[in-house]
Amino acid sequence: MAYQQGLNQQQKQVQKLAMTQQLQQSIQILQYNADGLQQFLQQKSLENPLLTVRHTAQGKANLSGSQRRVDNFMNAIPDTTQSLFDYLLGQVHLTMRDTPLRDLVLFLLEYVDLNGYLRISNAEIKAKTGAAAVQILDAVTLLQQLDPPGVGARNLQESLLLQTQSDDSAPNLAYIVLEEDFVDFVERKWAPIASKYQVAVAEIQHIFDYVQTLTPRPGAAFSQTQNNFIRPELVVHIHGDELQLNLTYDTQPQLVFQQRYFDRMLKTNDQEVTDYMKEKKQEFEWLQKSVGQRGSTILRVGQKIVQHQHDFFFDTKRPLKPLLLRDVATNLGVHESTVSRTVNGKYLQTDFGVFELKHFFTNAIGHQQSDSADSVKQKLRDLITAEDKRKPLSDQRLVVLLEAAGITISRRTVAKYRESLNIAASSKRKRFD
């Protein structure tokens, strides 16, 4: 009898980040503002008998008198609820250069509904903008890369695909099953799907369990009522020519471990109770570490902002230098999304007001990296203020003067900036007295 043996050797290298539930919650903790963090920890304290949360007098004593005033009611400045549109708009301005493609993305934002879905077809986009098909595809892709994951989708299937694509912890077959077998998957016809991919039905069930953790409405969270008060998480003080940046105590809630209760429960000699107590202790340790990392990340990002925008704190005109999220991310060696979560909804207290950290990010003008849009507008205002009102400067003349100052922008941009400053055209600024 002839004997044949077939050998088939394959080598496959896979690099994957396993995002555990704790890692996901760590990311969530970073995204919380001070009030959100307090509410989250209070809820955790109700679920964990070993955890108590308090803001201690000792923590406050480490702050100077002016730092303590951060919690004064005068600093509880009413804040407007941030809409999904505003959140997306901020990301576009902070991450994209001023190009026609960005203009097309801004156009698309007008058609993103409250749930995060894009309610305009490619044909309608072309009819309204005249953009080429490849430009439309690029703009939609850029929109769908924004946070929250799933935004900019046309339907539920596409939203789930986008969320799965952005999640490194997604099951291996999740994306292809959602893409190729969505209807059967939703209708729970899992046996044919499992047979198709030569896996156990249990693996399809695992994919289903994962999909249930995704959201069908990625933008819905932004329609909820948010807190109407600002609690700054950073405070900066001017000492001569130096700036001192500190975390406020709102950023550093103290987590207290109930050691005596833990020791008493371990003496019950009940294995189930012992396992439960050990699990809750591990949860406490993880929360304590995550809260500490959150404060450290906010402080590190704040330090880079303050260093880069040094002139803002000393010049009464409050000039801002160009700064993008990716600049800080690269400098700190973290992902851009980490910086985005860090600055969103976080505020900095100064002696002259409270500012959201996102305020300090601004694009450069053209290819120049020394002038931001705000600083150029200020120079434009100064030129017009000093002009001879009998012979006001035309937009073209302003272009020439700005170019002489090292700022190269178009006449159209000058006109746009002038209008944003509510300054009339030269023909309407002319005076005859």
Automatic annotation (TrEMBL):
Gene3D superfamilies associated with the record: Homeodomain-like (1.10.10.60), RNA polymerase sigma-54 factor, core-binding domain (1.10.10.1330)
One Pfam entry name: Sigma54_DBD
Keywords: DNA-binding, DNA-directed RNA polymerase, Nucleotidyltransferase, Sigma factor, Transcription, Transcription regulation, Transferase
Keyword presence, Hydrolase: no
Protein name from the UniProt record: RNA polymerase factor sigma-54
Encoding gene, per UniProt annotation: rpoN
Sequence similarity: Belongs to the sigma-54 factor family.
Lineage: Bacteria, Bacillati, Bacillota, Bacilli, Lactobacillales
Start and end residues of each RNA polymerase sigma factor 54 core-binding domain: 76-261
PANTHER family per record: RNA POLYMERASE SIGMA-54 FACTOR (PTHR32248:SF4)
UniProt domain RNA polymerase sigma factor 54 DNA-binding: residue ranges: 275-431
Keyword Cell membrane part of the UniProt annotation: no
